[in-house]
Amino acid sequence: MPDPQYVHAAFSAIASRYVTANHILSLGADVVWRERVVQIIAEWKPASLLDIATGTGDLALAIKRALPETQVLGTDFCRPMLDVALSRGLSNVLEADALNLPLEDASFEVATVAFGLRNMADYGAALREFRRILKPGGHLLVLDFNLPENPLLAKPYSLYLHHVLPTIAGWVTGESAAYDYLGESIESFPKGAALCELMNQSGFKDATCLPQSVGIAAIYIAEVNEALPR
């Protein structure tokens, strides 16, 4: 599991260049993935949404633009990232640890976390906390990196994660060390059926994995399991 202090320091160091780095390192694919997330959320028509580990606000801002009637709150434990989000127009933010959200039970209809669950100290505890703040019938959506579905792409992609990506990230952000752990975190993070099973064990049901861009990312969706106690 990631070290929270390391993650906090790493993201604080790259906050001002985080958006640019993401677009360059994903070749713009991160924009496409968020557009798909917004399409899914639009089908749920939520009145309230919590974007956990909102970072610089990319996903929260995309949701606000597409669904202006939805009340969106972005939370993150890294103040420099939230400051960037505020400067970009995300007015409703809260500095908070995702494993201990200072929010009431059953207070949101949808919770989203994009590229954040993988950086949390305890995946199961985080998922249970997300379930706590969701209303009955509420939905969770997780967007995160994955590994290519085609085994022929596995080795080239691993080389990119461990060698090319940190080098490019260093040029863009001046903080290559912040990306040194990224490849390992992606490879060790539960994927596909494993993450779906963890979601189902953490208070959700019908967890589904939707691979994106030949599997280098995935969208996971699940519904609150009302049959289980909070």
Describe this structure in words.
- The protein has 230 residues and is of the alpha/beta class.
- It has a single domain, classed as 3-Layer(aba) Sandwich (Rossmann fold), CATH 3.40.50.150.
- Helix content is 43%, strand content 22%.
- It has nine helices and seven strands.
- It has helices spanning 4-14, 18-25, 29-44, 58-66, 79-87, 123-133, 154-173, 182-188, 193-201; strands at residues 48-52, 71-76, 93-95, 108-114, 134-145, 204-212, 217-224.
- A seven-stranded mixed β-sheet has the order 3-2-1-4-5-7-6, with helices on both faces.
- Helix 4 (58-66) links the parallel strand 1 (48-52) and strand 2 (71-76).
- The mean pLDDT is 89.
Number of helices: 9
**Major sheet:** 7 strands, mixed
Under the CATH scheme, which architecture would be assigned?
3-Layer(aba) Sandwich
Strand element count: 7
Taken from the alpha-carbon principal axes, the silhouette is globular
CATH class: Alpha Beta
The H-and-E topology, N to C, reads as HHHEHEHEEHEHHHEE
Strand content: 15-25%
- In CATH, what is the homologous superfamily? Vaccinia Virus protein VP39
List the helices and strands and how they pair.
Elements: H1 4-14, H2 18-25, H3 29-44, E1 48-52, H4 58-66, E2 71-76, H5 79-87, E3 93-95, E4 108-114, H6 123-133, E5 134-145, H7 154-173, H8 182-188, H9 193-201, E6 204-212, E7 217-224
Parallel strand pairs: 1-2, 1-4, 2-3, 4-5
Antiparallel strand pairs: 5-7, 6-7
